[in-house]
Each structure stands twice: as C-alpha cells, then as structure tokens.
Sequence to fold (60 residues):
Amino acid sequence: MGNSIGNMTLNEAIDHCREIIRKSNSCDECINQHAQLLLWLEELKNLREFKRKIVEAVKS
Fold:
C-alpha cells in the first residue's frame, strides 16, 4: 500500500485492517481495534452499495 493514510480508499483501509489482524507480531490490542474497524468499514461499504442500488432503482 503505497498510499498515505489520507489517500487511502475504503477498500485499501479494509485490506489494511485485515493485514494487521493477520500479522503475528501485532499486539492483541491492535488486533482487537483493527477487527472493530474492519467491521465498521465493511458495514460502511455495504451501506454505500445498498444506497447505490436504491438510487439506481429510483432512477429506472
């Protein structure tokens, strides 16, 4: 991930969380925090996709 945190996309942020969770050298607190962030980011992604589908359906 060559992007700085300010330029990270939602998918990159999700991948980053998964990477931190997988790393064996990550502390338990970091793993737990990134697991919570991952849940929130995936929920945000799903809500955005749901909204996109609703907007498309209304436009049709």
Observations:
- Residues 47 and 55 are 12 Å apart (CA to CA).
